[in-house]
Amino acid sequence: MGFSLSSNWKQLQRKQISKKGTGKKRPKSAAAIVSKSVKASELSNKESTVSLKFTVTESTNRVSHRKKEVGKYLAMDCEFVGAGEEGESSILARVSLVNYHGITVYDTFVLPTEKVTDWRTHVSGVTPAHMKDAVSFKEAQKKGVRSTRRKNFGGT
């Protein structure tokens, strides 16, 4: 018995094939940008060095600036500590948001709302010392929500 693609998959494949070759290809690295924009052999050694440094820095800044933008995709990670008699109840202790490129958008420690009985440091990395700069749950929630409006999410 042979395997057959559904009509949806076939339609998607046709779209992808028709899109190939359209648009400009991006250089793979800053070096590729430099090699296309400046020919070192055409300049004196001193001019060549200055031009190449400028071009590499300029192109790298453009890329890193784009990566720092929040963008439309975010991932969230939360760390929890234990509360209750044997630390069986989990309480938020840290929340982190990163964009598509892994750049941190928001990262803060959160004051536990109950007495911590198990810091779970071996898993969470959170220690009592982190709590000196921690914010309240309400404050973390408010700032986190502000960062996440109209975003697509992934999280653990």
UniProtKB/TrEMBL annotation:
<feature type="region of interest" description="Disordered">
    <location>
        <begin position="1"/>
        <end position="31"/>
    </location>
</feature>
<keyword id="KW-0378">Hydrolase</keyword>
<dbReference type="GO" id="GO:0005634">
    <property type="term" value="C:nucleus"/>
</dbReference>
<keyword id="KW-0698">rRNA processing</keyword>
<protein>
    <submittedName>
        <fullName>RNA exonuclease 4</fullName>
        <ecNumber>3.1.-.-</ecNumber>
    </submittedName>
</protein>
<dbReference type="InterPro" id="IPR012337">
    <property type="entry name" value="RNaseH-like_sf"/>
</dbReference>
<dbReference type="InterPro" id="IPR013520">
    <property type="entry name" value="Ribonucl_H"/>
</dbReference>
<dbReference type="InterPro" id="IPR036397">
    <property type="entry name" value="RNaseH_sf"/>
</dbReference>
<keyword id="KW-0540">Nuclease</keyword>
<dbReference type="GO" id="GO:0004527">
    <property type="term" value="F:exonuclease activity"/>
</dbReference>
<dbReference type="Pfam" id="PF00929">
    <property type="entry name" value="RNase_T"/>
</dbReference>
<dbReference type="GO" id="GO:0000027">
    <property type="term" value="P:ribosomal large subunit assembly"/>
</dbReference>
<dbReference type="InterPro" id="IPR047021">
    <property type="entry name" value="REXO1/3/4-like"/>
</dbReference>
<dbReference type="GO" id="GO:0006364">
    <property type="term" value="P:rRNA processing"/>
</dbReference>
<feature type="compositionally biased region" description="Polar residues">
    <location>
        <begin position="1"/>
        <end position="11"/>
    </location>
</feature>
<keyword id="KW-0269">Exonuclease</keyword>
<comment type="function">
    <text>Exoribonuclease involved in ribosome biosynthesis. Involved in the processing of ITS1, the internal transcribed spacer localized between the 18S and 5.8S rRNAs.</text>
</comment>
<feature type="compositionally biased region" description="Basic residues">
    <location>
        <begin position="12"/>
        <end position="28"/>
    </location>
</feature>
<feature type="domain" description="Exonuclease">
    <location>
        <begin position="75"/>
        <end position="141"/>
    </location>
</feature>
<dbReference type="GO" id="GO:0003676">
    <property type="term" value="F:nucleic acid binding"/>
</dbReference>
